[in-house]
Amino acid sequence: MRRWVVSSFGEPKDVWALKEDAKPLELGPGQVKVKVEACGLGLPDVLMSRDNYPLTPPLPFTPSQEAAGKVIAAGEGVDKALIGTRVVGPTLFQAQAGGLAEECLMRASGTGDGVLSGLLPIPDTMSGVEAAGLYIPYQTAWVALVRRAKITDNDVVLVLGASGSSGNAAVQLAKAQGARVIAVAGGPQKAAFCKSIGADDVIDRREQDITKAALELTGGKGVSVIFDPVGGKAARAAFAATAFEGRFVVIGYASGEWARIALEETVMKNISLLGAMPVGWTADQVLETHQDLVKHWQEGAIDLSSSQVFDFDDAVTAATHIADGKVEGKVIVQMDNSQS
Q1: Which of 75, 141, 163, 243 makes an SS bond possible with 173, Cβ 3.0 to 4.6 Å?
Q2: d(CA 193, CA 255)
Q3: Which tens digits make up the pLDDT trace of 266-283?
Q4: What are phi and psi of 13, to 5 degrees?
Q5: What's the mean pLDDT in 286-313?
Q6: Which is it for the CA torsion 113, 147, 289, 141, positive or negative?
Q7: What is the mean pLDDT of residues 71-82?
Q8: Which SS3 state, helix, strand or coil, does residue 79 take?
Q9: How far apart are the C-alpha atoms of 189 and 212, rounded to whole Å?
């Protein structure tokens, strides 16, 4: 079996190696083995390679937290009828069996170790590349915007890091819910990308002051919802443009630091701080979210063709692309380049 292996910590270009003759994965109880069609890569995979991520597996490990493919074996306690089914879901990357391989392992259902787990069906008309691009970004955006912020068509949603994987998903999902979307991105190319996926307005953080621009775009009222996967200075600037009774949804810290917001700053404007991460939900809740997202896709409300797709042998290039901040949409690695 071919798989990418990280045997020491450092930059992906220095520590990722393609192993051509890796041993077959040992299937445990409650697990399935999946023949990978495509897998997703993200900033966490880069941070794990640097040993700078809370869920970094022990060495040696295979990157990629999410994958899509066909179930080829089922462990003890798993319905054998699953064999032959196409699924998308989280890999057992913490058990060193991530998706950047010809085969990976997944849990059949449930939650464990704080990581969402469970297999989700892929429609026959959805490619493995599209499915791998749907899973983590759109589950994250759905939890943040629909479940936590409860957005409506009266909301103005400001999306930080809007050209990245979760930001791209947030822009599209917010538009699908009828909200007005203000995207924040760095540079004209990423700004153009945000426009292409449906953002109503774009703030180029390299050329514009986020606070001032957001207030101008809203006639001084501010934005009602902020989607923040970035943290740092950008988050502080966005927070300053939050409207009365606004909701600030914390996703992550791509900038290297979390948003620094004191509780007393939320009081005068009745601002709600909301944490959002697609973990801890029941299998039924995750399936319900997946079904809603698939319906949006089938209706054309969200477009999964905006991913940046790399071939399996070019996985290091894909990871370096992420490390260099060049992402537009979701980075996907495909096993068979006929999918794209």
Answers
A1: 141
A2: 20
A3: 999 999 999 999 888 888
A4: -65, -20
A5: 93
A6: negative
A7: 92
A8: coil
A9: 22
